[in-house]
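Now for one record:
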Amino acid sequence: MEGRFLIGSNEKPLEGNIYSDKSAVVLDWLLRDGIKNRELSVRNVSKEAEISLGSVQRVFKTLVLKGILQVEGIRTAKKFYLKDPKRLLESWLEHYSIVKKCKMRTYRSGFQAKAELLEAIKKSNLRDKVALALHSAVEAHGYKNTNLNTLELYMLDPLIRPLLEKKLLLEPQERGYEVLLIEPYYKSLLKNTCDLNLDINVSPSILTFLDLYHFPLRGQEQAEFMAERLPELKRIYKSGKSS
């Protein structure tokens, strides 16, 4: 069974792109935890973010050139400071859009309500292989401000799509959707940072914000509402205007 593409297609990341899949783990860590640390080192970030030293070094080098990270010291004594977290988030927004990076399929369901769909997932052996995304994720985070009652799911393993279609009684839908299945661009970020809620994985807050911002269905409105209230995002916005 094939669902409809919502919009966009996969794009191959550019060589050295710090907004690529694995590099995004470093960016996410900086915006969630790095903002709370006065001093940062490549080795400590590598350990805490569970990403290779080489990946952290490459990201840090680019962020220093952009003026987002400040560096002091030389060689192994180098210390880094997150100088402009707001600019980092804005730069990430400029380089990532869910509608360009992710493959999405739209469906209607034989279930009558979203609660029934969620219950079907929780009772299945697929609950660890999906994560709530977009409007469904922001609702799980507790910052929903729309009346949308759709279900958006990241498939942590794209091979489960036929099983999900069967379990959720899905049929392709050409316009609009009741259920949206998404193949993630940021696989490593989701694997490392999914939040657990009601026995179903939830897309982490910063990725949820990034996804919503460029999403055509009331996305930017919801993203801005979330950024003004969710502590992890609010502190970035309150950190001062980027230059």
About this structure: The chain has twelve helices and ten strands. The chain has a mean pLDDT of 88. The longest helix spans residues 53-65. The longest strand covers residues 103-109.
